[in-house]
Amino acid sequence: MQGSLLKRSxxxxxxxxxxxxxxxxxALLAATFPNTGIGFLGVALAFGLTLLTMGxxxxxxxxxxxxxxxxxxxxxxxxxxxxxxxxxxxxxxVGGIAAAALLFVVAxxxxxxxxxxxxxxxxxxAHSPGGYSLLSCAVLEVILTAFFIVIILGSTxxxxxxxxxxxxxxxxLALANLVGIPVTNCSVNPARSMGPAVIAGGWxxxxxxxxxxxxxxxxxxxxLIYFLASHEWELAHGEVPHPLPSRP
Length: 248
Description:
Glycerol uptake facilitator protein, mainly alpha
């Protein structure tokens, strides 16, 4: 990765802003538009495209984590120093809140807009889109995040085809959203959850803990899965395991 920690943190701010503005914006503004709404598939693709485009835009600067869970997974995988983890996470959270605030400005320009009618919020129980229980939502978020981390670590591995990492990452996030939107509105990203929750307040802030705890737990599991798979590959091919590079 290139540049100072301040520049890389700013890149993470920009990337997370784009992810929340583009992904949550598609859910809020375009998903249910009369007759021509993009639906679940469109929202899932929107989230994937935000990550794909930012992967090429800032991947060479900051690694394009734009997700506190991914940053935790990268630190555990020794692709990012733990000392830089707080700066990345703060930038991501602030970027998500800024994007949600500007989305509110846009959405509230329509007569009849009401936060109670939905603001791309993540929730469980009565606030799950499909009415799924806390346990169901927690298990899903952990699994989706774990495999999302595996996809990121694998697609940016030095042994993977170079230059295609953002594509794998983007499609991985789109797939996670296709599975997760009916259950939790799909988080796998605490910053994506926190931005809209801070603006909406109420129950979304009360349930926000899950969308920090489950993605971070999933990231740790995903990093462990990839370490075990990578370690076995290197041993089988006579290589000495060592930390992988941090940029796509």
